[in-house]
Design goal:
The chain starts with 11 loop residues before the first helix and ends with a strand. Strand 4, helix 7 and strand 5 form a beta-alpha-beta unit. With 306 residues, it is of the alpha/beta class. It is built from ten helices and seven strands. A seven-stranded mixed beta sheet has the order 3-2-1-4-5-7-6, sandwiched between helices. The longest helix is centred in the middle third of the chain and has 22 residues. It has one domain: LmbE-like (Rossmann fold). The chain is 39% helix and 13% strand. Helix 2 packs across helix 8.
Length: 306
């Protein structure tokens, strides 16, 4: 029997399908084709893991469970925070009860996020001296990479130098050479066997630039640790974009040909990761980040072997 058509010639079945896609989304949109991704083994007692986080909380989103498993096996784990995440306007508005956040509001946000990182990583099991805060400008890392000879001004705090006393180099100008110098200092102190860093194709400019700079510094230092890239920001990722414990975390379709590896989580690992992410209370007040954080509590974490 011929399908019944509307007056423009569309079969009713196709018309209904289009409306359904627009209303609820295509169930496989943004997912790669079916394939078996290899599993990533946990680290052992002779390993030293360094996680490079563009902002406070990225270390937990991208590699929190991988770090927890490494700690259980006796490995050493370190985190270096490139920025203190001091340019989230929504968070600053809510936390400081203002519609026009100023310099002090953004600086308070940065200091608050440093405290949250210490609390979250303590819950994970990291000692305080395994955390390195660099304090470079949130939303300013790509400009530093693009204009290496210039001093960059933070779009949030308005500062042109590291303002946090807890940083590796307080007062260092926002120049690429200073960021590279601080990363060299962290590498000298940690001597990592594995580095987890943002993939250069992450859609957030701070993430892509932090990944590129880290790779440059590793090359300059002559170090050859295993490099694992993690992805946070991309279209249709994670899918579904909501809390979905027990679901796999799979790469977006357009990046499916990268050398992905999955690190499996137990249900206990999933719950532990969520408990760690809850410590980032300032960011969970931002509705988008609230959903994003929950969406990364999955059956696995996802890395690119770089």
């Amino acid at each position: 029997m011929a399908a019944r058509s509307d007056r423009k010639g569309w079969p009713w079945g196709i018309a209904v399908l289009v409306v359904a896609v627009l209303l609820v989304g295509w169930p496989h949109l943004g997912k790669p084709g079916s394939r078996d991704w290899p599993s990533l083994d946990p680290l052992g007692k002779d390993d030293r893991l360094l996680i490079v986080a563009p902002h406070v909380d990225d270390e937990a989103l991208g590699a929190g469970a991988y770090a927890a498993a490494a700690l259980r096996n006796g490995a050493a784990v370190y985190v270096v925070y490139v920025t203190s995440g001091d340019c989230n306007r929504t968070s600053a508005e809510i936390m400081d009860f203002t519609l026009r956040p100023g310099v002090q509001d953004y600086l308070s946000e940065g200091s608050r996020r440093i405290r949250e990182a210490r609390a979250a990583m303590s819950r994970l099991g990291l000692p305080p001296d395994h955390l390195f805060f660099l304090g470079y400008p949130d939303r300013g890392i790509q400009p530093m990479l693009q204009r290496p000879d210039q001093v960059i001004r933070s779009p949030g705090t308005g500062k042109t130098a590291v303002p946090y006393p807890a940083a590796v180099s307080p007062g260092a100008e926002y120049r690429l050479v200073n960021l590279e110098k601080d990363l060299h200092t962290v590498l000298d102190k940690t001597r990592p066997t594995v580095v987890a860093l943002p993939v250069p194709f992450d859609a957030h400019p701070d993430h892509s630039a932090s990944g590129r700079i880290t790779l440059m510094v590793l090359e300059d230092a002559g170090l050859k640790p295993h490099r694992l890239g993690y992805l946070i920001h991309a279209r249709h990722f994670p899918s579904p974009f909501r809390l979905a414990p027990g679901h796999p975390l799979l790469p977006p379709h357009r990046f499916a040909d990268e050398k992905w590896a999955l690190f499996p989580l137990t249900p206990a690992d999933e719950r532990a990761k969520k408990r760690v992410l809850i410590e980032y209370r300032s960011q969970r007040r931002d509705p988008y980040l609230f959903v994003l954080m929950d969406a990364f509590v999955r059956r696995n974490e996802l890395f690119v072997r770089m």
